[in-house]
Amino acid sequence: MINTKMNTIKIILKNTLLVSFAMLIYFFFLRGFDLDKKPLLRLVNLLFILFGINNTIKDNIFYNNEYRYLKNLSIGFSTSLLAVIISLFYLIIYVNFVHPNFISVLQNSFFLWKNNLSFTSIIFILFIQGTSFSLICSFLIMKYWKNYSNKI
Question: DSSP secondary structure string, 121-133?
Fold first, then answer.
């Protein structure tokens, strides 16, 4: 067990940047091999979010001896939500300045609406999806840590 205290904000920011950079690198990997048109491959981003939430909660438990359920749940959710927001900013910059035609790829990745969505609608839908995944993943990881330690 590590006894050095670490600021909670520092833990959140460290893991948020790690997750968002991993998602960015994975995006460019898919883009480089022309696999970005396959929406199911984007589900790998969920693994990055799970990794970030787990790292955040683990760091908070081991560095700060923080065992309160709601505290760890909230910092896990904060980490993943911030990573989603940063990733959406990356996407906005990419579509507006690098590859404007990427909107058609995004539009075709939604099964029901196809080309009927504006870029703003796509960003909003991705934000809602990211928020819900963040909440679900935070609860799943907290389930693991609750079983791991009787103190939570």
Answer: HHHHHHHHHHHHH
